[in-house]
Specification:
Radius of gyration: 33 Å
Number of strands: 20
Organism: Phycomyces blakesleeanus (strain ATCC 8743b / DSM 1359 / FGSC 10004 / NBRC 33097 / NRRL 1555)
Largest sheet: 6 strands, antiparallel, barrel
Protein name: Transposase domain-containing protein
Shape: globular
Strand order of the largest sheet: 14-15-16-17-20-19
Helix content: 25-40%
Length: about 700
């Protein structure tokens, strides 16, 4: 893997590509036979790879113009696909290299390909295109329209219709009668010409050229085995034809780059084309490395692990954070990326306080605060700048607090995360798949290059008016789903965000919720508890300025009354946050939240932590004489609330700089503030219970990054 990473970074830095020279190869010799042959001196080849990897890591910063790639006799067998990755990639991971792959004369094994070589052939050449520019537009429009909106059988009808129109208007031009012919004439079929389909053994993963040349059974030998794999490579379908049991679909890198290098400023942008995954760069990298360093330096030992585990057992985390208890006590063994994420964001601000030396803990919190920004699915440019500044402080402090060996290439990439996120967005994730089916690969490649195709074939200035029409067929749009909401007003993200960030103008509870929140998960209708009902009544009196709003128990008929019928919700998802009530249990993950309130003096905004007891909807019709009716503004009667018990506040502010707050592990008395629209919930929190030096029980509240999947 080190070899591949180094190869890729040098490729991006130098914008050069190297491929191996091709040897003469007998047509009778299959790829599988060559792989079987190459397994004899396995140990020597493994050692060669190890030596080469170490050398590549040491020479990572060397400014080279070419990248050495080992020679492969079986490359030419793959239909001239010299830059196919499966050959070298397969042998790389299986450690299948020839004995002379990594000798000192590797430069002799290299061919250079200059950037100009990618421009030698037009990837969208269409020699059969009609000379008439209007006829060109008709042909291009038809092929793009068919690729997006029409199935293959319908395309033939569309072509016939257009040909009839051309005859009616006495045009001396006709489209090819088949979609394949039309694609060939316009050069559209050239988009997918670099796609190759290979047959793969399901057992040993040996790659064969195609279904025609592949044997019926795998002839490769497994590692350490003396006999062939003998796994079936094909199967018979209902028509009687033989198809591959497993296929590997590959799009030519060279063809792809030949398109990319025709795009304006691609060469200037290629240096910023390397995506850094924050999950692995931050959590599997630096957090793990520092923990190993603290253990090696005896900063954290068995006694510290035991005390940390004891506190960790009291902690309550939201549902999408992984809990850590036994792994802390066992010294963080076999930790995965999501577990390191929980450690950094939730556990470490609490557990490392008092364990690490003060300066090291302060430096660690720079890293934690930066991670709190970078893990958010939505992030502002100001937040990116702040996170970058925090990581700069962290890296500079590491250079002082630790020896130089702590500064790795992975840590250097921290300082490039801000560029990566500005260009590509936050929170990258990978999705492991065996490979695209050929149909999906073809559609994917076509959609990716449609814009390049249009720009390439419309070369005349007189064709500019056609581009606007064709652009509607180039970009892919996803139709919005029809969702039943509770509000007659459209959802506005900016107004929704203001609802939980500005307590001076709080929402009332009937404002639009994100469409992704629906459908709501209802329970059966019920009657609200009388004590809670009184708080709901007071809430409406204050929120709508209705001091005369009466209880349902009021028998007078000259005052509007409030209904006590509610419908509880099992849970609710709001832009990625999953909230739920306690369901009559002491601890419920997803029930701990924070909201903003205006302080008693009216000038200070305070964040209060609490626990959702239950979520519910309530219908409230305004009296006919209310000012809202007089202004003819729309009033939606359905409200969505959370009944929350708020923790008592503490005067202890000693941990505010660490992003951790103190409160007491008991609830304040219920009031109308316990009724809060779900729109006002700021974020989820985690909690931990600790005992002070005076044996006073306190609760630590750890606010977690606000997710915003909008």
């Amino acid at each position: 893997m080190h070899f591949f990473v180094n190869w890729y970074y040098q490729l991006v830095a130098q914008t050069a590509l190297c491929i191996p020279k091709l040897k003469e190869h007998s047509r009778k010799s299959s790829y599988a036979a060559k792989r079987t042959e190459s397994r004899h001196n396995k140990r020597a080849r493994v050692e060669g790879i190890r030596i080469f990897e170490n050398t590549a890591m040491r020479n990572m910063d060397v400014d080279t113009e070419v990248i050495p790639t080992s020679r492969s006799d079986s490359v030419e067998a793959m239909d001239g696909q010299a830059n196919s990755p499966f050959l070298d990639a397969a042998s790389m991971f299986d450690n299948d290299r020839d004995d002379n792959d990594f000798d000192d004369n590797v430069e002799d094994e290299v061919n250079e390909i200059e950037i100009e070589d990618f421009n030698s052939e037009d990837p969208f050449a269409a020699p059969d295109m009609p000379e008439n520019e209007v006829h060109q537009f008709i042909a291009i429009f038809t092929v793009l329209f068919a690729s997006r909106h029409v199935v293959d059988k319908g395309a033939a009808v569309l072509i016939e219709f257009i040909n009839n129109l051309l005859r009616i208007y006495d045009q001396d031009f006709q489209l090819p009668t088949s979609l394949a012919g039309l694609q060939k004439m316009t050069g559209f079929s050239a988009i997918t010409k670099g796609i190759k389909i290979f047959v793969v053994c399901q057992d040993c993963h040996t790659v064969y050229q195609d279904i025609v040349s592949a044997p019926p059974r795998c002839v490769s030998s497994k590692l350490g085995a003396r006999s062939a794999c003998n796994c079936n490579l094909t199967k018979s379908i209902s028509s009687g034809a033989l198809v591959a049991k497993r296929e590997y679909v590959y799009q030519s890198i060279k063809n792809t780059l030949s398109v990319f290098f025709r795009r304006p400023s691609f060469e200037a942008k290629i240096l910023r084309g390397t995506i850094i995954d924050p999950m692995h760069n931050l959590f599997l990298g630096t957090s793990k490395r520092l923990m190993d360093r603290w253990i090696d330096e005896k900063t954290i030992g068995p006694e510290e692990f035991a005390s940390m585990e004891k506190i960790a057992e009291t902690m309550v985390l939201p549902r999408d954070y992984t809990t850590l208890t036994t792994k802390i006590g066992k010294g963080f063994s076999y930790m995965k990326a999501d577990e390191w994420k929980s450690w950094v964001l939730v556990y470490s601000p609490v557990l490392l306080h008092g364990i690490l030396p003060p300066l090291q803990f302060k430096n660690w919190m720079y890293f934690v605060d930066a991670c709190r920004y970078y893990v958010k699915p939505s992030i502002t440019f100001d937040e990116i700048t702040t996170a970058h500044s925090l990581l700069e402080k962290f890296c500079n402090a590491c250079n002082v607090d630790y020896t130089a060996t702590i500064l790795t290439c992975n840590m250097h990439l921290h300082l490039h995360l801000h560029e990566c996120i500005r260009d590509f967005g936050p929170n990258f994730k990978t999705n492991g798949k065996d490979g695209f089916e050929a149909t999906y690969m073809k559609n994917f490649v076509q959609n990716a290059y449609k814009g390049d195709y249009v720009n390439a074939v419309l070369k005349s200035s007189s064709q500019i008016p056609f581009i606007h029409t064709l652009s509607k067929l180039v970009t892919t749009s996803i139709p919005a789903a029809t969702v039943t909401t509770l509000s007659s007003r459209p959802f506005r993200l900016q107004a929704f965000v203001q609802g939980y960030t500005d307590p001076y103008n709080p929402p009332k509870g009937n404002e639009p919720l994100p469409p992704s929140t629906f459908p709501l998960k209802y329970k059966k209708p019920s009657v609200m508890d009388d004590s809670n009902y009184l708080h709901l009544l007071e809430y409406y009196q204050v929120a709508y300025n209705l001091p005369d709003l009466a209880s349902y128990q009021d028998t007078s008929y000259n005052r509007p009354a409030l209904d006590n019928q509610i419908i509880k919700l099992k849970s609710i998802d709001i832009l990625g946050q999953h909230y739920r009530g306690t369901n009559n249990s002491t601890i419920s993950r997803g029930s701990l939240v924070q909201a903003k309130f205006v302080g008693s003096n009216g000038n200070i905004i305070l964040g209060f932590a609490g626990q959702i007891q239950y979520l519910f909807t309530h219908s409230f019709q305004l009296p006919p004489t209310h000012n809202l009716h007089l202004t003819r503004m729309v009033h939606d009667h359905q409200h969505v609330f959370a009944f929350i018990k708020w923790f008592r506040t503490s005067s202890d502010r000693s941990r505010e700089d660490d992003g951790v707050e103190f409160c007491l592990p008991t609830f304040s008395p219920d009031s109308y503030h316990s009724i809060i629209p779900v729109h006002r919930i700021l974020l989820e929190v985690a909690t931990a219970t600790i005992a002070t030096s005076r044996n006073v029980s306190k609760m630590l509240v750890i606010p977690l990054p606000k997710k915003l999947y909008a």
